[in-house]
Design brief:
There is one protein chain. The chain is of the alpha+beta class and 124 residues long. It has one domain (2-93): Alpha-Beta Plaits (2-Layer Sandwich), CATH 3.30.70. Helices cover 35% and strands 14% of the residues. It contains three helices and three strands. A three-stranded antiparallel sheet has the order 1-3-2, with no helix packed on it.
């Protein structure tokens, strides 16, 4: 999972940002054979609208490194010159703050097959 904060530059352009995000997703995440599923989540409700989260799912721990390596390869294949990569990065990075954590989460499955349910109290 990649969690970033929007920067909101003076020359903010939602169509430009959406287009850059679309290009990256289409040419990197969707072509990466190690990524089983991905989502881009933006803050929708509340007083802080700067959250931007990319979540992608891989099969196992080894595929985390493989997916990251493959993302870099696909990025360099689509933006096939140093100049093209530099232009894309400059355009896209202006929308984010420099700081972001890279966090890894796992799904937690609860086995409740041998648990006796708690009865609801009639008192409310």
């Amino acid at each position: 999972m990649n969690f970033s904060k929007f920067n909101f530059p003076d020359e903010v352009s939602v169509p430009e940002f959406d287009s850059l995000t679309y290009l990256y997703n289409k040419n990197v995440y969707e072509k990466n054979e190690y990524i089983l599923n991905y989502k881009v989540v933006r803050h929708w409700w509340g007083n802080n609208t700067k959250d931007f989260i990319v979540i992608y799912e891989v099969k196992n721990w080894e595929d985390v490194i493989k997916a990251t390596t493959r993302n870099n390869e696909l990025f360099e294949e689509y933006w096939d010159t140093p100049e093209a990569r530099k232009l894309f990065i400059k355009a896209y990075d202006k929308y984010f703050t420099v700081k972001h954590p890279d966090e890894i989460y796992r799904e937690v499955n609860y086995d409740v097959s041998d648990i006796t349910p708690i009865k609801e109290s009639s008192e409310k």
